[in-house]
Amino acid sequence: MKKLVVCLAVFTLAMSAMFAGAAFAAEKPYNIALIIKATDSDFWQYVIVGGTNYGLEFPEVAKVTNYGPPSEADIDKQVAIVEDVIASKPDAIVIASTSSDATVPALERAVDEGIVVITIDNKVNTDKVHSFLATNNTVGGALAADKMVEAMNAAGIPLKGKVAIVSAMAGIQVLDDRDAGFTEQMKKIAPEIEIIPPRYVDNDIIKALGVAEDLITANDDLIGIFADNNHTGDGVSRAIAEQKLEGKIMVTAFDSDPEEIKALESGAIKALILQDPYGMGYKGCDFAVQVLDGKEVPKYVDTGAVAVTKENMNDEEIKGLLDPMLKKKQ
């Protein structure tokens, strides 16, 4: 009887090892689903350019298909997209999940079904994913504060008065981290400045414009606004430009799109904190392929944050970050 038990145990272990090894026994080219947060934002289009370029460069290795809801506010729609993608049985999913929690059950099920899952931009609250590539948003927020104070000093604005935060959405971890990093750094380097709590705009440019106008009207001593993504940057910079307040209210913002780039050139925005959305899409797909090939990849990769001002925006090493469409292969 003991021999039988031992034999069964050995057989079970052998079968487990066999199935573990076969979990990613897919044929090339691997089918990779790249799921972004929203199709209405240039930032996420830059992610798509990165992922698409990877597939074009290595057609024998990967076929990349893109998915995403219209807006970052469409969290339920993104969850439904994830469910549909899992049902189509891709070899891998590379996803920027808007919510840290809403997609977790589906992503955990995907891993259990043998699908490689790589997350980018926003951390999801599970340890099951194979890798996570993202900006350290707390550091990026602090960098935005540094650049704002530099702009104030350059404009001869005393470090007294109020600074506001216009945030795309409430309860989104990456945005919370940016706002917290900005706030803590401002307290350190400009302790006499009062920080107005974040105003949320549902990731809507027109709402961001309206909130910025309200803040300007209600606060005569407003000397700065931090916009924590490209849509808020677009809205805030419009308010500054329309009222010709480039020399009075210093604006720093996250990410880049054509409107933010124009605002940087005009001085409505003093600095943009750039992530690497192209790299997230490209490297995310590459990491998926490496895992499918049986290779090890880091659990977390900091994709970096760079401050861009009018002075350095034309540097060669900056151009590709400022406008990743320049890298588009088709």
TrEMBL record:
It is found in: Cell envelope. The keyword Nucleotidyltransferase does not apply. Residues 32-296 form the Periplasmic binding protein domain. It holds the Pfam family Peripla_BP_4. Transmembrane segments: none annotated. GO terms for molecular function: carbohydrate binding. The keyword Cell wall biogenesis/degradation does not apply. Residues 1-25 form the signal peptide. InterPro entries: Peripla_BP_I (IPR028082), SBP_2_dom (IPR025997). Its main location: other. Keywords: Signal. Coiled coil: none annotated. GO terms for cellular component: cell envelope. Belongs to the bacterial solute-binding protein 2 family. This is Periplasmic binding protein/LacI transcriptional regulator. It comes from Vecturithrix granuli.
